[in-house]
Amino acid sequence: MDIEPIDVTPEEAPPLPKTGFLPIETNWFDRIFISVVIWVALSLFWLRFIEPLGLSIWICTAISVVLAAIIIRKG
After folding, report:
1. In a domain, 38, yes or no
2. How deeply is 58 buried, as exposed, middle or buried, from its count of CB atoms within 10 A (0-12, 13-18, 19+)?
3. How many domains is the chain built from?
């Protein structure tokens, strides 16, 4: 019965966390939550100030989806 030693180096460093443009350490759920909060805030702002000028809420939704994709992907 041959037993070979396993090479384990105690000096292995853990991988560095992914750094994005958000000033806090986040995981994917945090970034989704931040995106939803921004979507709600932007929608309320849009309904109060922009929609009376004649622009549809769908434009706000499109902007929110683009922002969410950027935040979730690179945040």
Report:
1. yes
2. exposed
3. 1
Cβ neighbors of 20 (< 8 A, separation 6 or more) are 26, 74, 75
Burial pattern 23-55, b for ≥16 Cβ within 10 A else e, equals eeebeeeebeebbeeebeebbeebeeeeeeeee
pTM of the model: 0.72
* Residue range 7-33, pLDDT digits in tens: 656 566 565 666 788 888 888 999 999
**In the block, which residue shows the tokens 């935040």?**
71
The domain containing residue 41 runs over which residues?
A: 28-74
Q: Which residue has the tokens 């019965």?
A: 1
